[in-house]
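Worked Example 4.2. Read the sequence first, then its structure tokens.
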Amino acid sequence: MGYDLGTAALVASATKGGALMYERTSTGDIFPTFVTPAMARAKLNEVRAELQSLDRDIQPSAVPAQFKTEWGVFRDTYEAFYRDTIDNFFAINLGTKGTIEKAEEFQRQGLQWRALFEAQGGKPTAPPPAPPPPSPGLPEVVGKAEGIAKAVAVVAVVGGLVYLASMVKR
């Protein structure tokens, strides 16, 4: 049996009478976000510390071995991302916003692992970290603009074909 993080987090939340932690926003991130390399490094280190703390609780616990194995895969995946990114000039200096968003994605998944660990009877020693901001979805305006752009492209292609056909007949 694999651990479905989405379902597990909802089940863990529901069994404790809690509310869902994350909801997608409809507005999205439509304005440029200014982030610095220092902010990206800080987020990477913050997520790493949270996952290492949770790992120190999971490893000696009595949760099933399969849970520990699957958690280990997740933990190792973040560690690989961390090592590949922390000293990577391009990721830190040019892709700072993307780096932070990816780290926040790992952070959200870490919170889901924590909820699943607690649902299995685990007891994390550190207080739960504050959840990162919700993942921005595409704003509704962008979706409408995309549809309009597609319609304009189709009209342009059809118009171009009609024009070419009229040129061939001459």
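Now turn to a second chain, presented in exactly the same format:
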Amino acid sequence: MPRQKKLLNSAAAREKGGYINIELDEDDRASCRQWLAEPSIKEHALQQLIDGKYQLKVSYDQNNDCYACYVSGHWKLNKLDADWTLTGRGSTVDKAIGQALYKHFVLLKNGWEEFKEIQPRQQNWD
């Protein structure tokens, strides 16, 4: 199933913020695994994320029975993405973090402002 995207219609809607949930199809998940297999990519990506003034939080998502990684801009330091939260999910903490990094650096190419995603409805997060 292809990712479902919904662009925000106005600057006012973009300013409200929310969650950026991108459902990965099988090809995306394979591409994510391949990207994360590169040596030191996760460490390098985490460092770039921190240097970009983003925050990362990981917790267990009971509703979806998986781990969830939430990435958001710091409200004082990264005002562009401060009201937005990009999510990554996986069966392990490592997979959830990796998926969030893949979405940020590969799918969204560091640009969140035009995307508001529909909540994912899948069981296989990896």
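Notes for the reader: Residues 13-117 form a domain with the Double Stranded RNA Binding Domain fold (CATH 3.30.160). Residues 1-14, 116-122 have pLDDT under 50 and may be disordered.
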